[in-house]
Design a protein that fits this description.
The protein has 218 residues and is of the alpha/beta class. The chain has a single domain, classed as 3-Layer(aba) Sandwich (Rossmann fold), CATH 3.40.50.720.
């Protein structure tokens, strides 16, 4: 699923089908943006708002992206995959998104990755062990594709922000969390999906986050 937003005369585009993506859309609408959502199953997306446009499509099918992306100022990818099996969702999906962005001269992209891709040297000994010997082994396949996704984004000339949240929680937004721009956060453990969305909506045009890998955690 993809989500796209516009505020006043600006268009910004959000992509996600899970809890984080829905939070992004809701908070973007609350902030006064116009949002377009690219979804695979229209029946599973029930949010209705005067400033929301919903388009049926699939990021793995390049031809379906064009309608949703034309005329946008920014893209947010919150692609998600609950399976631990091998996947190309992240890398193939982002490749299609980046190609469409290039064709339409769109420079800004924010994409959600995962905090566990690297062992954080600032984390506690227990969390480092948990990351390396449990999390990275269980999620070996999706993490491999997320790393490829990040590599594809970094190779572009876009104004990208790769967001690496800590363990995601289904809790209300607080607006209070730690941000590490191109640096690790000490002892990260968790953050609400709603606060990840809060960061994204608040930093759509934030130049200090351009060309960065940004960590988020309480």
């Amino acid at each position: 699923m993809s989500k796209q937003l516009r505020k006043r005369e600006k268009n910004n585009h959000f992509w996600a089908s899970g809890g984080t993506g829905i939070q992004i859309v809701k908070q973007a609408l609350d902030a006064g943006y116009q949002v377009t959502a690219l979804v695979r199953d229209l029946g599973k997306f029930t949010l209705v708002h005067p400033n929301l446009i919903v388009i049926r499509g699939d990021v793995l099918i390049a031809s379906t992206i064009e309608e949703a992306i034309v005329g946008q100022d920014a893209i947010v990818s919150a692609l998600g995959n609950r399976s631990t099996k091998p996947t190309k969702l992240y890398s193939d999906g982002i490749a299609n998104i980046l190609a469409a962005m290039h064709q339409n001269n769109i420079q800004r992209i924010i994409c959600i990755s995962a905090g566990g891709l690297e062992v954080n040297p600032k984390a506690s000994f227990f969390v480092r062990l948990l990351t390396k010997y449990v999390l990275q082994r269980i999620l070996k396949e999706p993490y491999a594709d997320l790393r490829l996704m990040e590599a594809l984004v970094r190779k572009t000339q876009t104004k990208y922000t790769i967001v690496r949240p800590a363990r995601l929680l289904d809790k209300p937004v607080t607006g209070k969390y730690r941000i590490g721009i191109n640096t690790n956060i000490a002892n990260p453990f968790s953050i609400a999906r709603a606060d990840v969305a809060h960061f994204i909506v608040k930093h759509i045009s934030d130049k200090p986050t351009f060309k960065s890998v940004t960590s988020l955690s309480y």
